[in-house]
Write a structure and sequence with these properties.
This protein is mainly α. It contains five helices and two strands; from the N terminus they run H-H-H-H-H-E-E. Helix content is 55%, strand content 10%. Strand 1 and strand 2 form a beta hairpin. The radius of gyration is 16 Å and the shape is globular. The chain starts with a helix and ends with a strand.
């Protein structure tokens, strides 16, 4: 079974780790307990929209970017699950990390938006 809270936690953890930040730093900035943030990242707790917004603000990452990454991972997980249920050899699909030099920064509504160069 695919659990959305696990996918969301994985994405939030990767975003935090890409920035080289600790759970303590992000939890303080988001004003959420360190333990609760840890449980969200591990997919043990379901994040409310308010909590998710606070975490995204603390990470300085648009919520739409986080949700897009979660959506991409959900699609991959569904494909893998479908392949497994068809008694075919499942294909392991993983998101491709994008190097900072492959991103283009655009200014929109006073916010920088990263776009992956094709």
């Amino acid at each position: 079974m695919i659990l959305l809270r696990r996918l969301l936690g994985d994405v939030l953890r990767r975003q935090r780790q890409r920035q080289g930040r600790t759970l303590r730093e992000v939890s303080a900035s988001a004003r959420v307990s360190l333990g609760y943030l840890s449980e969200v990242e591990r997919g043990q707790k379901e994040a409310s929209s308010e909590l998710l917004s606070a975490i995204c603000d603390a990470l300085d990452v648009p919520m739409s970017e986080v949700m897009r990454e979660v959506s991409d991972e959900l699609s991959l997980a569904e494909l893998a699950q479908s392949a497994a249920s068809e008694n075919t050899a499942p294909v392991r699909l993983e998101p491709v990390p994008v190097a900072p030099e492959d991103r283009v920064s655009l200014k929109s509504a006073n916010k920088a938006v990263d776009v992956v160069a094709a």
